Amino acid sequence: MDNSPHNPTLREQLDAVRPDSDDLREAEVQEAARAIVTSDEWRAVFDRQQAFDREMSNAMQDVEVPTDLQTRLHDALALNREVADQSPSPLEGEGQLLQRSAEKQGEGAGRVSHREPTPTSLPLTLISRLRSKSVPLPPGERGTAVTPSLVRPSRRTWMRSVIAATAMFVVAGLGWLILPHGGAAFTLNEVRQSLPFKNGTLNTTSLANFDSSFDAPLPSSRWTSWQQSDAVGLDLDGNGTHDAAVYEFAYRGTHGYLLVLPASRISDPPTRTFFNTATISYTPATNVAWTAPTEEVVYLCLLDQGQLDTLSRVLTPATA
Amino acid sequence: MTDGDRARIVGEWVEEHSSLVYRFAYRLCGSAADAEDLTQQTFLTAHRKLDQLRDHEKARSWLLSIVRNTYLKSLRGSQQFVAFESCDGFADPSHDQWESPIDGEELQAALNELPEEFRTPVILFYFEEMSYKDIATHLDIPTGTVMSRLSRGKAYLRQRLVTRLGEDVPVSSTH
């Protein structure tokens, strides 16, 4: 649907104008701007629409916030930092921290009490953070509320601790396998030069499926629809894990590959953040690179058939 | 910036912006549990990526952009695309009268009924007060498509809210 030209109707133009804004000066809504000046009927429609929009904007903010939300957020942040500060100990493993946080959640559950206070009830996001590196908790911060107790543990507690510590080591081991381990940084040009080109075409037949050693999202759902097969991986530094995910794509006679690289591995990441504003390079094939700051990845799009303009036209947000 | 500085700054943002972040997350997700998770993930991400924000005066919009991007990212792979034709029921309403103020829960129920491709632009328009051009940029779709989706999404909300309250509210034709 996005690929076909669309001329906004008068009603659509009116609906696009925000209350108390300068939107009526925009070129796309000039028909509406004229209509509300020349027609009392459209002026009335516009005024009602603006009034409705103001009501809606107010209603959007009408959400009851859990009373203990801030406390739980502070606890989550403190726990996140504390876990990174904890060295593995049989008396204070991740399991205990999870349990403690879960108990805190249970205690603090007010209007929004959706989860049982068990370790597994923690959001995946927090568990993910618990497994990642972080910063130590500064003295006097809120997180001191969950500092390890110095009281001698009971036998049951000790056994639980041993089990928790074992689980922690297993999780840590899995985390080490799953999470990126850092490594040498490359320039974009080095990446380009290391690509296995054969007869002017990227030769992906010898590449293994991407090992998911880092999060390699596509830029948008549109790219997903163009994807031709599962991603394959490139091991640029020869350490056995993939440093780039390579997606083959095709769209209307344009065929190529989209490389996704961790931004931390690129020493000269592009400053542009959109495909359509990125600078074009022609070595070893027509390509553009851009950065997705929030995803912490760099995209490198190479064509072996077609023109970048074909993609640019459909990826540029503009009135068709 | 020291670790203590980072913790202090994000801690202050929790005090200042957590309610806003939660409300935005709730409107996007449609459930309190998911909104809490999204809120928590937002502040953890902010703590982790704090160095990327040069101007801390823009913390509010930066946090909302993290909410938005995290939410949109979560949709990838699970998003159900609704055919445009299936939304033809979003006819322009013949009446534009509604009960004031609009109830927040009624609104959420109506939002939850909207297909994702209509719901997100509408929320960005009303909650973040984004222009249609900014919405187009952030969602990576043409402005004409944004205008169409906004119009149809808003028409549905008008119709839905008025219809739900129709027995109590006198409805008159406006044009």
List keywords for this structure.
heterodimer; A: 320 residues; alpha+beta; 3 domains; 10 helices; disordered N terminus; B: mainly alpha; Rna Polymerase Sigma Factor, Chain: A; Arc Repressor Mutant, subunit A; 7 helices
| Beta-strand content of chain B | under 5%
- Pattern of helices and strands of chain A: HHHHHHHHEEHEEEEEEH
- Described by the principal axes of the CA atoms, the overall outline of chain B is globular
Q: What oligomeric arrangement do these chains adopt?
A: heterodimer
Please state how the strands of the largest beta sheet of chain A are arranged side by side: 3-4-5-8-7-6
Biggest interface found? A-B, 79 and 76 residues
Report the sheet with the most strands of chain A, covering strand number, pairing sense and barrel closure.
Answer: 6 strands, antiparallel
Radius of gyration of chain A: 27 Å
Q: How much helicity do the residues of chain A have?
A: 25-40%
Q: What this model shows, in words?
A:
The complex is a heterodimer of chains A (320) and B (175). Chain A is of the alpha+beta class. Chain A folds into 3 domains: 10-60, no CATH class; 69-178, no CATH class; 188-315, no CATH class. Helices cover 38% and strands 13% of the residues of chain A. Chain A contains 10 helices and 8 strands. In chain A, strand 6 and strand 7 form a beta hairpin. In chain A, helix 2 crosses helix 3 and helix 4 packs antiparallel against helix 5. Chain A is flat. The model of chain A is unreliable at 1-5, 87-122 and 124-155 (pLDDT under 50). With 175 residues, chain B is an all-alpha fold. Chain B has 2 domains: 3-75, Rna Polymerase Sigma Factor, Chain: A (Orthogonal Bundle); 87-164, Arc Repressor Mutant, subunit A (Orthogonal Bundle). Chain B contains 7 helices and no strands. Chain B has helices spanning 3-29, 32-48, 59-75, 104-113, 116-126, 132-139, 143-164. In chain B, helix 1 packs antiparallel against helix 2 (32-48), helix 1 crosses helix 3 and helix 6 crosses helix 7. The model of chain B is unreliable at 79-94 and 164-175 (pLDDT under 50). Classes of the chains: A alpha+beta (320), B mainly alpha (175). At the A-B interface, helix 1, helix 3, helix 4, helix 6 and helix 9 of A face helix 1, helix 2, helix 3, helix 4 and helix 5 of B.
